[in-house]
Amino acid sequence: VGCDRSKNLVDICGEKHFQAFVCDALSVPIRSGSCDACISIAVIHHFSTAERRLATIRELARLLRPGGTALIYVWAMEQEYKNQRSKYLKEKNGSKNKEKEMNTGTAQSDQGLHNSSQDSAWSDQLHNGLKDESCGAKPVADFRLPVHTNRTSFHSQDLLVPWHLKGGTKKKEESVDTVLVPGGSKESQELSPVFHRYYHVFCEGELEAACRSLDCVRVQKSYYDQGNWCVILEKL
C-alpha cells in the first residue's frame, strides 16, 4: 500500500493497479501497529522544522507492529563522502538522460533536476529561523533561503531546489518563475514554469540522532548511500 501527498502520482499508481491513497506523512490514516514494514524515501527532507521532521519519524513508527521495520532515506549534506563523489555530482549538464527527459517533457526526480540561470538567485521566502549550523553550513543572509545550483555541493542545510517543468501549463493562481528552454528551432523554444521546492539536507548523524531520540524504536543500521543518509529502524 502506497501513499503520497500528490493526487496525480497516486492516480498513476491506480492506473497501474497498485493500492495507493493521498495523505500527509504527519497523519497517515492507517491503524497503529498494523504494518510489518514501512518505507520513507525522499520525504522527510521536505519538512521545514526539526519538530516536524521528528514528528514524521514518530508517525512512521506508530504504523509498525512490534518487531516491524522501517527504512528511511533523506538527502545528505555530504555529497562527497570518504573521497567519493555522489552520483548526483557526477551527472554533468547535457547528459543523455537529461536531454531525454527535457525532450519528453517530464519533470525529473528529487536528485535529477535541471539547471537554470536563476539557480544562484535568492528566494523571497522567509527562513523559518530553525537553522542547524552543524557540519559547516553557512548562515543564510537576510532571513532568505538560498536557491541551490544543481549538480553542485551544498553550502546550506536549508535551501530551495529549482524544479523545471518542461512544457507545463500553470494556473492563474500559481506564482512561478519562468525560464527560456533552449531548443533546436525558434518554434521549439518556450517558457516553462520553475517551482522552488524546500529541502533540509541532513548532516552525518543527524537522521540517526533524531531516530534515537524516540524510545519506541531501535536503530538497526545507519549508512550512507549515493548522497543519502539512510536508517533502518525496528519497532520495540
Automatic annotation (TrEMBL):
Residue spans of biased composition, Polar residues class: 104-123
Keywords assigned: Methyltransferase, Transferase
Compositionally biased region (Basic and acidic residues): 91-102
Coiled coil region boundaries: none
GO biological process: tRNA methylation; tRNA wobble uridine modification
Annotated region described as Disordered, given as residue ranges: 91-123
Gene Ontology cellular component list: cytoplasm; nucleus
Annotated ranges, domain Methyltransferase type: 1-72
GO MF annotations in UniProt: S-adenosylmethionine-dependent methyltransferase activity; tRNA (5-carboxymethyluridine(34)-5-O)-methyltransferase activity; tRNA binding
Protein name: ALKB8 protein
Gene of this entry: Alkbh8
